[in-house]
Amino acid sequence: MSVEARERRQPWILLSPALGAVTLLLLVPLAFIVVYSFWLRSAVGADTPGFHLDNWQRALTDPFFRYILLNTLKIAAITTVICALLGYPAAYFIARSRGNKLILLLLLMLPFWISYIIRTMSWINILGSSGALNTALMSVGVISEPIRMLYNEGTVILGLVHFLLPFMVLNIYVSLEGIDTNLEDAATSLGATRWQAFLQVTLPLSLPGLAAGGLLCFVLGAGTYITPLILGGPRDAMFANLVFEAIITQLNWPMGSALSLLLLMVLGVLVAIYNRYLGMSQLTKGLG
To answer: Where does the source fall among the domains of life (predicted)?
Structure first.
């Protein structure tokens, strides 16, 4: 074998373990889900192999599924906007801090050391009828009986913000950290106020990080089912809860496969649009 041929094959040899893992753990299961989505669930509870479009027709035309999908996108969008409003000041403070940024970043990463389910269930002890907030309000005489705060859309959004806010802060921080602070000083030396320098220099340059954080929060928020399952009520189900219900409760794998692929395609379109106009490099920076 020639040296040139060996050099051409070397990158593929190095990539082969990663490609094998992606194929076995992602592509093969996804192929099974695609095949399952065209099967049918019989009346006796058995899956009927074949190429049937019944599941897809129901997933695309049923008003209930369409309502849950639109509600899921709405909740994910509201969560993303709140994370952006809360996360940008925190990321700006960390990026412009003159102290030890490592400590601030460590504090930001602390929630990841605790199970997502435990963090979500902690809101029950805070907002429940006998939770910390109701107990405190009743002890000072603000209310005479507990307020019902749980199991609604607001608590679902609260739980999602609690879960996704660190992802937003990290992406914005990475973007702000790459901006030369001398640009702001130059703008102020030319007569701009600090606020004008921020709006016309810092904010536009940090928009890629904000967009990357927004995409990450939106996709993770739209694909979650734990938060609405724990903190939401019967009317606050999200699309992933329908997938969970179809596969785990009803054991209807074909319908659950079609629903999961529908959600994957909707979120995939959003990712493709983001990649077309902004690219995935900023997102990989934030995750790294």
So the answer is: Bacteria
Quick check: 117 and 195 in contact, CB under 8 A? no
| DSSP letters for 18-39 | HHHHHIIIIIHHHHHHHHHTTS
Quick one: 124 and 17 in the same domain? no
Rg of the chain over all Cα atoms, to the nearest angstrom: 24
Dist. CA 187–CA 202, nearest whole Å: 10
pLDDT tens for 19-70 read: 899 899 999 999 999 999 999 887 777 788 888 899 999 999 999 999 999 9
Rounded distance, CA 194 to CA 199, Å?
Answer: 9
pLDDT digits (tens, 9 = 90+) for 135-185: 898 888 888 888 888 899 999 999 999 999 999 999 999 999 888 888 888
My answer on whether 15 and 68 are in the same domain is no
Range of the domain at 236: 62-287
Kindly state whether residues 195 and 247 are assigned to the same domain: yes
3-state secondary structure of 48: strand
Answer for the pair 214, 282: CB distance below 8 angstroms, yes or no: no
Residues 211 and 272 in one domain: yes
d(CA 166, CA 1): 51
Query: pTM for the whole thing?
Result: 0.88
State pLDDT tens for residues 176-186: 988 888 888 88
What's the burial of 164, exposed, middle or buried (CB within 10 Å: 0-12/13-18/19+)? buried
Nearest alpha-carbon partner for 248 in 232, 259, 234, 261: 259
Count structural domains, the chain.
2
